[in-house]
Adaptor related protein complex 5 subunit zeta 1 (Cyanistes caeruleus), 798 residues
Amino acid sequence: MGARVPDSPESPGREIQEEELRRFAARVSALLQGPEPGPEAVDGLQRLHLTVAATKYPRKLDGKFVELLQTVLCLPKSPEQIQVLCAAILREMSPCNDLILLSCDEIQDTKLLSLVSSVLLAQGEMAAVGQCVVKVLERRLPEGQSARFLLPVLANVISLSPESLTEGKSIGRAEIATCKKMADWLRYASIQQGMAQPSGGFFSSPRTKQPAPITEVDGAVATDFFTVLSVAQHYTQDQWLNVQTFSMLRNWLLCYGEGALELDECVTSLVSTTATAGRLLPPGERLRDKAFEYCQRLIEQSNRRPLKKEDGDLQKACLIEAVTIMDIICKQDSSYVCRAVSFLKVLHSRICGDATYARALLPIAQFFLNHSKLAAVDSDAIYKHLLTDIPAQLFHNPSLAFEFVQFCKDNSQLLTDSSSIFRQSFPNLFKFLAWNSPPLISEFVDLLPFLLDPGTTIEIFHLLLDLPCLTAALDIQAAALPASEKAGGDPAGKPATCLEAFRHPLYKSMFQYLLRTKSAPQDAPESLVPLRQLLGSLAGSPRVVQCAESVPVLLELFFRVVAEFADESLINQLVVLLLQRSDQLYEIPAFKEDVVLGSQLAMLCRLRPALVVELSTEILEFSGAVSNIQSKEAIFTHMVWAIGEYLSVSYDKRCTVEQITRFFETLEAVLFEITQLRPQASTPSCAPRAISVLMATLTKLAARSQDLIPRVSMFLSKMRTFVQSPAVTSVYCEEDLEEILIRATELMNLLKMPSVAQFVFTPPVASTQFQRDVNDSLPLALRMVTQLLEPAPGSMPV
């Protein structure tokens, strides 16, 4: 009577306790030790594998049971399904101290060696497995054994630990032997289809059919050697080896191509005395030669029209791999470059007009980036097509977007050095970010510095601020009707929807500029404000909101990079733009809060203080507008602070008393306007911080032109009346009013000692350490002066 199938320990939503798992493993152990483990043992192993695999933390099995699994795995007579399950459980348990497998060298069966190797790799035994596999491949395999089971193991070793196959610092004999076999497997696989396994039934034909030839993906009989794109109903062992060799060829060449090249030089010196016109190639060179030939054949096969869709997908994947391998070969041996250049130029001409081959254009461009200088060919047309057409057409393809941006990031220096097209194409590249913001933000953080130079800075600044608008515009572009189907309407009237506006004369040029494919500063419209207002209906779109969240990070990076190369003129332009654009942002409340331009303005002023004098007209116009306190409070406050900090002869010899007076009068008028108490009108509401900064800046200016001290002192003395007014107390909280009054008192006290005020407010250029410390902590300095002037509590007034 057969043993009962053990109950499964797994149950949805129930945690398996260690004791229950131990009892279940004991039942499986009893089944495995039976005379002939059958279906019950298979079922038990399957359930056990599920239990140890589907858990958040490592499971521990009894040491004796682990040893039994190893024994059953290595027994030649164990059923294959049971061996596979034992190996799977041991892999899940790895790394495990109880796991001490036999040496790979003792295993003769290649299928069993593949299973044992998979467990050893999970244990971290890379070098032992790698050396064992290449040694087995080096020798002639016994009858009935196939290298087909070992190549996936070798591919894993190369991927996980490339250095594990090398002996010391050079490639070893076994690896060279593997190179020889790989060359043969690539080039000399059978061109006849494999035979179907005979069923052995009563009606089986006594005559053996002749094997049919392999075919191409379009159904034509193949007239050249077998490749991964060759089609057959059944495949022979050497054809499987051909496919496996190609799948690991790229990694093999990357890991051992250079080492084989070095060894080839030694081998060449030995064989050159016997070489003839058809000279014997060293192993590494021979592998490269056969690999190059194989890749050429794949590229030719990719031009055939497939009968099945899946074969078309395979064609494209093989085309990408073939071009990549050709690039590697040319890096290792430049004698292949000229052949590859002409071949790939023809390929590019063939596929560049087909959007389904867009991914294949990336390795082609990579090849020309790496080798066009050596081949003395002009590759600008290839780069131009790649950077102009692909992002504009396929920005919505997320996988292509990632690969494209990754390509640009990895080759940013090469692209910058090779062609001006790269930097000029930044409007196109940002379409990828606008449509795929969260996944691509880290790539653009690396890419942005390479796109910035004095010629692109201003455009990129505008583009970063308008990035959410670009997302909305791309959304509309994708939904817009073709020109032939557009609805008619009055060109003079205002469009009712964003979709109508896309081709409306009032908005068409704005859309075209925002969606441009390359830098075009000369085409910039006067203002995009109407377009931002029009696109307001899409401000709540999740894609637009996500894009807006990426802008602050990039803006901060933008100014950090620009600060490294910007000259006086560029800094001045940016300051003017900051003042203009601070309230011209897409209407997303969180976006307008997160885009902090005031701190960037302060940084630019700190970088070049003389701009306060040079841009006095623009700055006076901006700081003299009371409306800017409400609409642009943050940047207004920073601008007023910069005036007080940098409008000094210490920073710019061109600074005159007249200029100081002009700035003083402008800011005095603004402060008067916002603090003036009106009997019948409401008091303008503005941030307490703005009032405090205005008072401090007026005090600083008065300290530098002491004729102004009486005016500002009188003004400051009236602040007590201001903060106590019912109209003001209804607008501001008590803490804010107290802070305003304290600051006014401190400043007024400081001005009672003009020489001290002048000393404290002198910009710290070649100044004393005390001055630098005071300027770094101005509130502390003000309190120190106040304490000197005001009597201590409880003391008699002097």
Q: What stands out?
A: The two ends are 115 Å apart (CA to CA). The CA atoms of residues 503 and 771 lie 61 Å apart.
